[in-house]
Every structure is written in C-alpha cells, then in structure tokens.
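User: Can you write out an input/output pair for a complex, sequences first and structure second?

Assistant: Here is one pair. Inputs:
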Amino acid sequence: SQQGEEDPQALSIQEGENATMNCSYKTSINNLQWYRQNSGRGLVHLILIRSNEREKHSGRLRVTLDTSKKSSSLLITASRAADTASYFCATDADSGGSNYKLTFGKGTLLTVNP
Amino acid sequence: AAGVIQSPRHLIKEKRETATLKCYPIPRHDTVYWYQQGPGQDPQFLISFYEKMQSDKGSIPDRFSAQQFSDYHSELNMSSLELGDSALYFCASSSLTSGRRETQYFGPGTRLLVL
C-alpha cells in the first residue's frame, strides 16, 4: 500500500493565493520531506521536517507535521505562476539501520494561473 | 554547490537490449539511492548503497543490478529491456551526519525509452 498519499491530486489557484497540500502516511517515520517536480524534470528538495518537529518554515513555505494523525501539510503563500509543478511528500520509515529509503506519495499537481 | 550527476540524460534502447545508467553523488555523501518513475507515477525505490555495500532493496526486477564503486559513484545495469522499463530513473545521495539521516538530493534523472 502507498505510504504517502497527497490530497488533493490536483489544485488550481490564482496567482497571489495560498495553496495547501496534504499528505498522509501509514507507518512510523523518522522524517518527512517535500519535493517539487516540474513536468518530467528532476525532483527538487523543498523542506525536511523531523518526527519530533511540528512546524517548519522556509521562505514562502510552511510545513506542519502531526505524527498522531500521521499527516503533514505544505502551505505555499502568495503563490506565483512559477510555483506550478507537482509536489510530492516522501517519508522515511523508521526501519532502523544507517540509511533509509523514501516512499513517495502520489503527488499534487499545482497550477497557478497568472 | 555540487549536485548529483547522472548520465546519460536520455537513452533510447530496443527491447531485449541492455542499458547502464551512471550516478555521481554529491561529494562526501556516502549513500546512493535509485528510484524509478513511470509516466504520471510517483517515484518508486529500487535499491540503495551505503559505503559501497547494498543496504536496501525495493521493487527492482531481477533483470536489473547495481553497484557502488570505490569512488562512490554508482551504476544501474538493466538487461533484457522491456517496454515497461521506459521511465525516468533518478539517483539520489545523502550523508549520515552525527547519526542523523539527512536530506536526499536527487539528480536530474535519466529518461529511458524502450522501443
């Protein structure tokens, strides 16, 4: 089953508005990361939030993590047309060892209309 | 800052051929991961290496193999290619710093098309 699942699958907003994307996961995690992907391009790391953190900010990005509900949200404020991309959450399951693999959600396709 | 380098960026192969994808991690990163992303899909973990040893294995077909070399670069070898292998293949690298798992940084990907 999919570890991380994004909601909504697609979101269309006007420039200047805020965009909120949600992610749910199933197992215990060490951290949760958000990535951005422009169509068919590489994955760009946006922000990492650890399991003992509840909120983190980076520029226009705000990420929250609720480990009791196994969910996270990504808020992009004052959106711009250049923010148009797919956004994925990825979780690092607490499987022990000295390394980890990421399990990605299905992604949210964000379209910001000028 | 140096990023993850992947080569080639694009590759076209015929069915049943072989392909080798290369990944050069960020300097001083000790862990390399390979992911496969099919059209319209989320990335799926294939395999990872830590300090040149295979550390985890995901949904990697038996036709695929990978290794990490002494200079930490990694190669993904794909044999008997099938149409369904057409995808974007990402390599990512990270470091284990003071016992904490750090961010995985992704390369630009290799787009493989099997005809």
